[in-house]
Amino acid sequence: MTMHVPTTPEFKANAHAALGNANLQAALRGSRGNFVAKRAKARAALPEFDDLRDRARDLKNAVLADLDLYLEAYERQVTASGGHVHWAETAEDAQRIVLEICRAAGAATVNKGKTMIGEECAINDALAAAGITPVETDLGEYIVQLRGEIPSHIIAPAVHVTVPEVEAEFRKAHTHLPPERDLSDLAELLREARGVLRAKYFEAEVGITGANMLIAETGHSVIVTNEGNGDLSQSLPRVHIVMASLEKIVPTLEDAATILRVLARSATGQEMSVYTTFSRGPRRAGDPDGPEEYHVVLLDNGRSGMLGSDFQDMLRCIRCGACMNHCPVYQAVGGHAYGWVYPGPMGAVLTPALIGVEAGGQLPNASTFCGRCEAVCPMRIPLPAMMRSWREREFAKHLTPGAVRYGLGIWAYVASRPALYRIATKVAVAALRLLGRGTIRALPFGGGWTGERDFPSPQGGTFMAQWKARR
Amino acid sequence: MKLQGKPMPAPRVALFVTCLVDMFRPSVGFATVKLLKDAGCVVEVPEAQTCCGQPAWNSGDRETAKGFARRVIAAFEGYDYVVAPSGSCAATLAKDYAAMFEMGDPWRERASAFGARSHEITSFLTDVLGVNAVAQEARVVATYHDSCSGLRSLGVKAQPRALLGSVTGLELREMAEAEVCCGFGGTFCVKYPEISNVMVGDKTRNVAATGAALLLAGDLGCLMNMAGKASREGRAFRARHVVEVLAGDMAGPAIGDAK
Which residues contact A9 (CB under 8 A, 6 or more apart)? Predict the structure, then answer.
């Protein structure tokens, strides 16, 4: 079956290309700081925000400690309300289950609300390969689909695209509209997308959405959206499929409310998203609308293996995107450079867990450990510490590049022996001063530094030698 | 604090000078010693020190990092306090050492106790010793970059600003994104030089936009990165470690200047 092939091992080359892509850089520069300022404002307006973060963390930790029980309770509730829960151990299993449901429904078209689990399972590719047309209904996802890409951000899929690029894409795709129409501003683009997508809502036999949360107490699935596309995608077609992963469970409606209070504020700086929609089964007798069939595909895909590991805390993630909005590395290179479904700091921790550290190991290395992600994470996930844990795995598996291991080895040998270290530093200082006073323009074996910046030369003499001489 | 009229003995402080200050800017070490002595401390510099071990810890080599932790703790734990002119190295001593050892390892307890006595210089002066002013003068417009580890691991933010606020003639003008990483990141700057370069370029642009003549920070690694970029770009501002201003050591060349 088709899956997104990670280009994660080529992170450096991807980043290089991203830095040279003028459109991408313009898009990133244009959005930079917007999310940061909005979150800061929302946070400042809610004095108990940090207490809510503690509560959200604690409730999710409690879920993870007894995840099996909560999942079974959730399944019972969904079944009781006439829905079906399908357990998918792998992304391939999820694809197969979704395709079976779609085929049984005789689907020619499937409408999609936003789902990152769908991306993780490459569900669009699988549907297309089976002759079923997937239609993304979230505006950002729609743009990305037209471009033949995957999202570059988990809540702002098309954040890497500039407005003129969207215009060009729409003119290419919407050939039934008059070519002379004005698409110069955002409102026009929005109106056009709305018109095109509105018609599609009535064509699809199946609607697929993601889930922001699954509530064990009631069997509800919760989605938060700003466009209303999720509601139309899940209530108009005859069949509704929810694609969700195991860790989306919260125990009660009350707990869901706690998470909702930190989710939108962290993501977009909104107090609440425009729509918060609950569903838990097919249309009941007397309901004016709703699907005839309701399916939940519950994906594991490696998550159960994270339970009890150094990476369990990652399963608290609610996919708000605050970490990438605040990450200077993400802001420099954008999401596609990360090479798979999940970018930014959360991707740097999650990706190696899902596709293996051999393929995903670049990502936890591409961090300065500045800690800004952890500082804003609503679920208080220790992202840098977990990136460090991945580096430990890589070191233990000898995946760390040979030059790094070798260099570290020599440095550690010398720095473990103070007398030898005193001599080595004295020689190094003298040698560096031979290369330049003030600054060094080109450092032998240090082209990484001096390619684009100078290297400040030592003042002369080491502190330890001078201190000793003054005594 | 006085107990029955007897003055409290002067705290014995061990200076952890850091490997970068030792090699590149010894004057920062001496400025730190001056600040500590002015605040009434007895300062000693343990001979056995080299590096805190952070490069090994952040490269995933936990066993080597533990070796550094054990040696530093053994060499420094006889003092009342350990102080470093770096938020990054101080955070390694204060926070990371304890995290290196498993639960149940006696070194974990020892590292925690040691960590509680380890401090970054500006926060040690203000938070521990209660020093809120220095008797210095510097007629200059300065801006301050918050280095990541100091800021987020140790909460160093207001302390250097409070001390700088007491320097006669110094105007502190905040830059945009002062809390955003400069792109140094230890080995990051040579492992991912292109990304690091973009980050430091953003930083020097933000510094220059303030019109400040002087960029200050509390970590030499970040300062060398920012000063090196500013030098290549031909920026007008100079860069110094914050303790140089606080100790009145402004006569010598700024970072990256020959004279």
Answer: A339, A359, A361, A362
